[in-house]
Design a protein that fits this description.
The complex is a heterodimer of chains A (369) and B (183).
Chain A (H helix, E strand, L loop, with lengths): L3 E10 L5 H10 L6 E4 L6 E5 L8 H13 L9 E6 L5 H11 L12 H10 L3 E5 L5 H14 L5 E8 L3 H9 L21 E2 L1 E8 L8 E10 L12 H14 L6 E5 L6 H15 L6 E2 L2 H4 L6 H11 L29 E7 L4 E9 L6
Parallel strand pairs in A: 3-7, 4-5, 4-6, 10-11, 10-12
Antiparallel strand pairs in A: 1-8, 1-9, 2-3, 6-8, 9-13, 12-13
Helix pairs in contact in A: 7-8
Chain B lengths: L3 E9 L5 H8 L12 H10 L10 E7 L4 H13 L6 H6 L4 H10 L5 E5 L4 H14 L5 E10 L1 E9 L8 H4 L6 E4 L1
Parallel strand pairs in B: 1-6, 2-3, 2-4
Antiparallel strand pairs in B: 1-5, 4-5
The chains are: A alpha/beta (369), B alpha/beta (183).
Chain lengths: 369, 183
């Protein structure tokens, strides 16, 4: 795959109001404080990692995010593709309407491309579409956006990934028993008890040219569907192993060259077992350093492919230790990691619908860019 | 020479029930999945007739203008109005790529599986995404699907084996016989 640059990136999350603040909190080892919501019927509290309320409408949040990512002045965007990656889209509006009107009516239903099309018109993007492949949405948006511009379909692509605090998602994951009752988000811990959902708004500008201060290079990636189960992947890790191998192949590198694996690490029983097996199939006993980021951002679902990628590449030299490393299914770091800037990174993202995706990245420095 | 290898178009009116869709699907699939919603049924119904021509190294590129309204309505009513827990199978079906999962599982597809919100350029977007995977040799075939329901519904599927840049379904399927199913 032709390398493509993440030229600029923006992240608004529970960990910090922007990417710099989130990185500072990560490096200090200060996790965000979770709020709680109550599971319907069961009346049990569950944690949620929301960002500090801004009072902005969804449109205002999008516009601020895009403005910060493009910089001032944004200039004409008639050469730029917009890909909106999200599972929540405008669900909060639909939830509010159902509450106020006593139920859902079919005419409440909005088009799945509504947000992308409104942003295309408002900002003047050359083209726009919504990509929704559950928790791999943003990873796929990065991968396919990069390849579309490498194929000269567009000069640039802006990936906008977000996930809002939706009651449907909170109650739905709760009904599946996947949300942590303890609130301790511990991927790969033997007594892990589920995930903590998180809110995030993230954007990245993809270009073939590095620009002045590129964040990272996307060197390759692969995405495919494991049809064995709608909500879990093969527990033996064979599909994850295959996807990671295909991602490495697309980047033209070998597993031994990987300097860090950013695990998907949802802290659900099945996913962590499958990913642990997959990583061991690929790397054998020669495991590279590993890290998990969901305890810091929450599981930001369709946005995690970008929210975690941005947090990762900005903080390679200061990745936090895991305080249960000695017990974890995989050898998570017991001391803070300092990964060199030129290291090759493998980032995993898996989702419902059988979607498994892996990206190969490299942080940009003066030398590597 | 046609750009497409095979295609199917399914149409139905608003009175066409999920039961009707299930009944039609049994003509094409021996064991259709259980507890699936209307959008999954529509996706399966327009792709199952192409099963005999589909290879395992085929990617799926699916677009829908709306989610399955009945599923969304049931979830919203349960969660937001009646303060109930959603039914797990309804929540899982509401994931946009659930339809793509079931198509891939039933047709034995092992390639990439993408879902996009269908806007006015849905066919061009699907072709652009599929063209990347075809051109890179990741897949030998691509199955493109667009579902649109607004009163009446249309579910259309096209199987291609090389990159294409047609304007729409009609242009994509010039020169081949499209299987037309009217419910």
């Amino acid at each position: 795959m032709t390398p493509v640059y993440l030229q600029r990136g923006t992240l608004h999350s529970a960990l910090g109001a922007d990417l710099r603040a989130a990185g500072a909190a990560l490096q200090r080892g200060v996790p965000p404080t979770a709020s709680t919501f109550v599971l319907n019927e069961l009346q049990e509290p569950r944690p949620y990692l929301g960002q500090v309320a801004t009072g902005e409408s969804l449109d205002q949040q999008f516009d601020r995010l895009i403005g910060e990512t493009l910089g001032e002045p944004a200039g004409a965007l008639d050469d730029c593709l917009l890909i909106v990656a999200s599972t929540s889209l405008d669900i909060n509006d639909l939830e509010d309407r159902a509450r106020h009107e006593g139920g859902f009516s079919p005419d409440h239903s909005t088009s799945l491309d509504l947000i992308a099309e409104q942003l295309r018109q408002r900002w003047g993007f050359a083209d726009a579409f919504t990509l929704n492949t559950a928790c791999t949405s943003a990873a796929n948006a990065l991968l396919y956006g990069a390849r579309l511009i490498a194929a000269n379909r567009y000069a640039r692509a802006l990936v906008l990934a977000f996930e809002t605090p939706s009651a449907i998602a909170q109650q739905g994951f709760g009904a599946l028993g996947l949300i942590s009752p303890s609130g301790h988000y511990r991927p790969f811990h033997p007594q892990r008890d589920g995930l903590v959902l998180g809110e995030a708004f993230a954007a990245a500008l993809l270009t073939v040219e590095p620009g002045a201060e590129p964040l990272a290079k996307l060197l390759g990636g692969f995405s495919a569907c494991d049809t064995s189960n709608l909500t879990t992947t093969r527990e033996d890790g064979s599909h994850i192993d295959w996807v990671m191998r295909q991602a490495l192949r697309s980047a033209g590198i070998e597993a031994e060259q990987i300097g860090l694996v950013k695990l998907h690490g949802t802290a659900t029983g099945a996913n962590d077992r499958a990913e642990s097996n997959g990583v061991r199939l690929l790397f054998g006993d020669a495991l590279p350093p590993l890290c998990v980021l969901k305890p810091w951002l929450g599981h930001t679902l369709g946005a995690c492919g970008l929210s975690e990628t941005l947090l990762l590449v900005q903080n390679l030299a200061h990745l936090p230790a895991c305080d249960y490393a000695s017990e974890a299914l995989l050898p998570l770091p017991s001391v803070p990691l300092a990964i060199t800037d030129d290291s090759l990174l493998l980032a995993n993202f898996f989702g419902f619908g059988g979607n498994n995706a892996s990206l190969v990245l490299q942080r940009c420095t003066g030398a590597s860019s | 020479m046609s750009m497409a290898m095979a295609a199917c178009s399914v149409r139905g009116d608003a009175g066409c029930s999920d039961k009707d869709l299930k009944a039609a699907l049994t003509s094409w699939l021996a064991s259709p999945p259980r507890r699936i919603d209307r959008m999954i049924l529509q996706a399966l119904l327009c792709t199952a007739p192409l099963k005999v021509k589909v290879l395992s190294n085929c990617g799926l590129y699916l677009a829908s203008r709306h989610p399955a309204r009945a599923t969304m309505g049931s979830l919203l009513d349960a969660v937001c109005v009646h303060q109930l827990q959603p039914k797990p199978f309804e929540f899982v079906n509401s994931v946009s790529n659930a339809a793509g999962f079931h198509v891939a599982a039933q047709l034995g597809l092992e390639g990439p599986n993408l879902f996009i919100g269908a806007g006015p350029r849905a066919w061009q977007h699907l072709q652009a995404l599929a063209a990347l995977d075809l051109a890179d040799g990741l897949i030998a075939q691509a199955l493109l699907v667009v579902i649109d329901e607004n009163g009446e519904f249309e579910a259309k599927a096209v199987l291609i084996d090389k990159p294409s840049q047609a304007a729409d379904f009609a242009e994509l399927t010039v020169g081949i016989d499209v299987l037309q199913l009217q419910l």
